[in-house]
Fold this sequence. Notes:
Largest sheet: 7 strands, mixed
Number of strands: 21
Low-confidence stretches: 138-142, 170-175
Oligomer: single chain
Distance between the termini: 57 Å
Strand order of the largest sheet: 17-16-15-18-19-21-20
Number of helices: 20
Amino acid sequence: MGFCFHKDAKLVVYGASEMARIWTENILKKGFDVCAFLDRNAKNIGQIMGIPVFTLEEWENTSDALVVIMLTNAVQHQEIARRLYQKGVNQVIFFPVSTNGLNIKNVSKLRKVYNQCIRQSFDLEISGIPFFGELLDERDKSEAVIYQYSKEVVLWCPAELCYSIKEMERDAIWYSECTEDKRRLRMKYLSDKNIYNLFPYWELLDFCYGETEECPLYLKIYGKSAQNKKDIYDDGRLLADRSRLVQLYEEEISKHGGISFFEESPADAVMGEKGKVIIRDGWHRSVFLVRRGYKWIPVRITVDEYERFFNNASAVELYRRLKENKTECLEYPIEHPVFYGYPVQRQNLRDIWHSMANDIEKNDQMIRVVVDLSMSHAYFSRLFIREGANAAYFFSDEKDFLTVEINRLFDLEGLYDIREEEESTDITGGGALVIIKADQLDRHREYVNKIREKSDVTVYVYDVIMRMTTVLHHIFEKREIKLLKKYVVEGEMNGLFVIR
C-alpha cells in the first residue's frame, strides 16, 4: 500500500518560500519534474524558475499529482492537506503536527518520510508513503470511549463541557475543613466553574512551572490560614507537595505520550444540567492536561449516564450525516464526545473562549445577554448559556443545517437564532456581551453602529489581522480597546480584542 516518490511523479510544490525554491532547485538537479507551485499569493508571483504558480482554487488538479507541502509553519500543513484531499489529491507529503483522530502508525511513517524528502536523503525514490485517506482510515481512537467497566465508562470529554461541582453539592469535607471567609472564596472561584476558569489551579501551575513567584489565591483557599484543622502542614510544604505532583504528571506525560496514566486515573464525574460534565474529583490533573494543550479530558461516568447523554440518537445521526456528506473536517468544534477525533480546523476557538472567559471573570462581569455574530455554528452561544447567560442570540445563514442540528443535540434553553439583520439591531440592552469575528464587522455594520459608543455593551472581536488593527480603532474610536491574545491563522498574526 501507499504511493511512491520518484522521478516520474507529477510533482507540485505547495508554498513559494525561499525554502521551497531552494528545495525545488535541488530536486530539479536530481532529474525530478516539478510542474506547478501552489500559493495563495500566486497572482503576485506569476512563476518561479519558469514554473507556473497557482492558487489552490484556480489549480486544475490531476488525480495523479503528488503535492509536497513546503510551508515553514507546520501547523498549517494538516488543513492544507485536507483541502487538497477534498480536491481529489490523495498523494500529499506533509508533516502532520497533530495525531488527534488519525491513524498514529501512518502519521509516524509520514513524518519520517517528510523529513527524508525535505532533506533529500534518498537515492532514487521513497516508497510506501501513506495515502492521505490511509491517515483517516482505521483510526486508533475513532470514538471517545477509552474502556468500560461493568457499570462505568471512561471516555474522552471536551474540556468545554467539564465543570467543577457546585459548592452546595460538595461533600461535607468542603465545609468542615475551611473557615467561613475561605468558604466564600471557594464559592466565588471554585463553584460551578469551567475547567478553563478554575483560576486558583491555573495560578498554582504557573507557580509550579516557575512562571510566577507566588500563588496567593490558591493559598488563600487551600493554605494553612484557610483551614480549621490545627495539624495541617504549612504553606511551604503544601506548595512543595503540589510541585512534586506536577513534576510526576510531567514525567508521566513525557513517557511514550504518557497519557495512559491519565486514562487509568480519570477524573470522577457525573452529568449535570445544560450538558455539563461535573468533575467531583481530579481537578489538578484535569487542569494540568488542559494547560498542556489537551482539548479532551479522560473522565469516568456511569454506563447509564453515558447511554443517556453521550450515546443519544441525535449525536449519532449528526455524525452519520457529516460522514454521508463527506465532511472530512469540521470548521468549528462540536463540544460532544461523539465527535472525539473528528478533525477540526479551528481548534484555537477553545483558547479564544478561554481568554474571553478569563477577561470576564477578572472584571467580575455578569453575563446576562449574549449576541453571537461569530458565525461559528453558535459555539460561543452555547458556552455562555452554560456559564449562566439568560439568553444568547446567534446569527446563522438559512442553509446552515449544522447549527440547527448541533443546537438540537444539546437542547439548551435560551438560545435564539437571528437570521435577518433587522432582528439583531434590537438586541442591544445594557450589559450585553457581543462576540464578533472580524470578517463579520462589515456584514453587521448596522448593529455595530448602534453599539459602537455604548460603554455598557462589551464587545469581543477575534481574528483581527494585527497589521489591520487601525480598522478596529476607527470603528470604536471612542472606546477603550485592549488586546487579549495573539495567535496565528493561515500564516497571519491575528488578535482577540475586547472593547469596553
